[in-house]
Write a structure and sequence with these properties.
Blueprint lengths: L1 H10 L1 H4 L5 H7 L4 E9 L2 E9 L2
Antiparallel strand pairs: 1-2
Keywords: Methyltransferase, Transferase
GO molecular function, one term: methyltransferase activity
Protein name: RlmF-related methyltransferase
Length: 54
């Protein structure tokens, strides 16, 4: 299990470019509008990050 977790972390694009938050990276790439949308169902909270360059 730990080996699988380690392989997943090594293949993650965000890990390769550092540990900056996704919003910061998207803003640096030139996004005009960035929105974090939260979806809640019971005790679960899921966040979706949406952005546009237009």
């Amino acid at each position: 299990m730990r080996q699988r977790h380690r392989q997943a972390r090594e293949s993650c694009a965000f890990d390769r470019i550092g540990h900056k938050p996704a919003k910061t990276l998207i803003r640096e790439m030139g996004a005009v509008d960035i929105r974090e949308i939260e979806m809640k169902q019971g005790n679960k909270i899921t966040s979706v990050l949406a952005w546009t360059f237009i």
